[in-house]
Amino acid sequence: MQLGYVVHYVRDVAESSAFYKKAFGLETRFIAEGQFAELITGETALCFADESFVTDMIGDFRPNRPDAPPSGSEIALVVDDVEIAYKKALFAGAQAVYAPAQKPWGQIVAYVRDNNGCLVELCTKVAV
Hints:
128 residues, alpha/beta, four-stranded mixed β-sheet, globular
C-alpha cells in the first residue's frame, strides 16, 4: 500500500492553487472546473477539492478558517532552505506561526498557516 494523494478541502480551489504557487512555488498539474486541483509535489500529490465535495458525501465537517484554530493536521513541505521558504510564504500572505528553528534531531522546521488557515510545516529532510 502507498499514499497516493492528500486532499485539502477549501472554499476556493483556484485561489488556493494560486496561493500555493506564490507562497511555496508549487505548480498545478491540473484543475477541473474549479472544483478539484492537483499540485505537483513529487510522488504523492497534494490536491484541493471544493468543500461542497465533502459535505455532499458525509455532511458537516470542520473546515479550516484563518480566523479559527487550525484543524488537527498539517501539510509538510520539505525544502532546502527553511528560512528562505518561510520568508517567501510570509511575503505571499501566509500567517506566521513558528519561526525557523533547529530541532534536537537535526531538522530545521517552521510553521505558517495558509490562506485557508491550514498549518503548513516547512522543514528540511530528517536525517536517518
